[in-house]
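Course assignment 3, question 2. Fill in each field.
Student: A.L.
Task: Predict the tertiary structure for the chain below.
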Amino acid sequence: MTPDIDSRRTQIPDNPLRTRLKKDLPYLDRLQSEINSECNRIFMHTYDSIQVGDTFKLTRFISKEDVQAFADVTGDDNPLHVDETYAAGTRFGNTVVHGILLIGIISKVLGRDYPGNGSIAVSISAKFLRPVPVGSEIEIEVRVAEKMEKYGHVRLRVYVYLNKKMAVGGEAVVIPPSEEE
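Answer field:
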């Protein structure tokens, strides 16, 4: 029997490079954190920098493990999402991703990618247009539809695409981060 990758890693003897990396790991973690902070500052999208028509896209693979973790956290273990045998007998023919998990990924994009860190979601609404099978690669698209100057809010169109076909469509209103954040 072949050992799994993790057990093989532990069998690799220490060498000068491994010893050095172990020693430098705390420094590298701090450096990565500083790089992330600087990137967020450089690429932060504030109300003033956002323009109507701006678009952001992100591709993401949704695994069986992602769906199971979501089911475990929420308690939504509907067999349509987690039981391949059950789902095979449904109109979908296989397990499908929770719609709210897809909305959660949209929320992640709004809060971490565009507009980015410090954004506050005021509302997110969506229609589920077609199922997304577990094990699919999706594309999230966020498009600026309106700047609401009175409140400093931004209205965004949000979409989830599966094989270039819209699976989820909706909108979100966010308060973008400010320069001070």
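Instructor remarks: Helices lie at 5-10, 16-42, 64-74, 79-82, 84-88, 99-113. Strands lie at 55-62, 120-128, 136-148, 153-162, 165-175.
Grade: pending
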